[in-house]
Amino acid sequence: MKLQIGGFLDNSLVNGDGMRSVLFVSGCIHNCESCQNQLMQSFDYGDSVLVGDILKKIVKNVPIIKGVTFSGGEPFESALALSKLSEGIRKQGLNIWCYSGYTYDEIINSEDKDKLGLLKFIDVLIDGKFHEELRTDASKYTGSSNQRIIDVQKSISENKIVLWE
Ligand code: SF4
After folding, report:
1. Is the pLDDT score of 152 beyond 80?
2. Distance between Cα 15 and ligand 1 center (Å)
3. Domain 2-130: assigned CATH number
4. CA 2 to ligand 1 center in whole angstroms
5. How confident is the model at residue 136, as a pLDDT?
6. Which residue among 4, 23, 24, 28 is best mutated to probe the pocket of ligand 1, counting the most ligand atoms within 8 A of its Cβ?
7. How much distance in Å is there from the Cα of 63 to the middle of ligand 1?
8. Where along the chain do its domains lie?
9. pTM, rounded to two decimals
10. Which pLDDT tens digit goes with each residue over 79-116?
11. Residue nearest ligand 1's atom 8 by CA
12. How far apart are CA 92 and CA 101, in angstroms?
């Protein structure tokens, strides 16, 4: 199985908690005003890479990294392949953060089994479209104040949105 990838960072401190590898997945339908990653809205941008080869790049960064962040683009448009990758990431004992233009509610209420399947692998979801009029510097992980940093596993088990702390 392959993923269309717009970029990969071995080590980053600004895309989630602790040192992380970051995967930028191509393709997005949200069309946010002032999108910072317009090139990655295209589903053809970047390279088509085997999931196993991406995992090898991530594993090379263990034990420096604490986890992996999926960004984009819209990771949930590539949910099936990312679920496959997430299985391997979990086996390394790494946590998974994910940025999405979808809200948590849209994903959890979706009838798309692939999107729901991916959500179950995510530890922290930063959700919602970027809104220029709500742009904020208040949080180092979100771009606009509508976006939330959600503890996905607690939210699923408690059946309500629990914010990450
Ligand atoms: S979700 Fe992200 S990549 Fe997609 S249009 Fe919005 S800012 Fe751009």
Report:
1. yes
2. 15
3. 3.20.20.70
4. 22
5. 87
6. 28
7. 31
8. 2-130
9. 0.97
10. 999 999 999 999 999 999 999 999 999 999 999 999 99
11. 35
12. 27
